[in-house]
Design goal:
By secondary structure, this protein is mainly α. It contains 1 helix and no strands. Helices cover about 90% and strands about 0% of the residues.
C-alpha cells in the first residue's frame, strides 16, 4: 500500500516553492517600505 504523503509530494513541492517565493516577495516589499520611509 502506497503512502499518501508520497503520492501528494508532486503537489507539495510546487506549493513549498510558491511559499518560499511569497515569503521572499514579502521581505523584499518590507525592505522597499523601510528604504522609502
Amino acid at each position: 500500500m502506497t503512502h499518501p504523503a508520497r503520492d501528494a509530494s508532486p503537489l507539495t513541492i510546487p506549493f513549498r516553492i510558491g511559499h518560499v517565493v511569497a515569503t521572499t516577495i514579502r521581505y523584499v516589499n518590507f525592505d522597499i517600505v523601510v528604504a522609502a520611509s
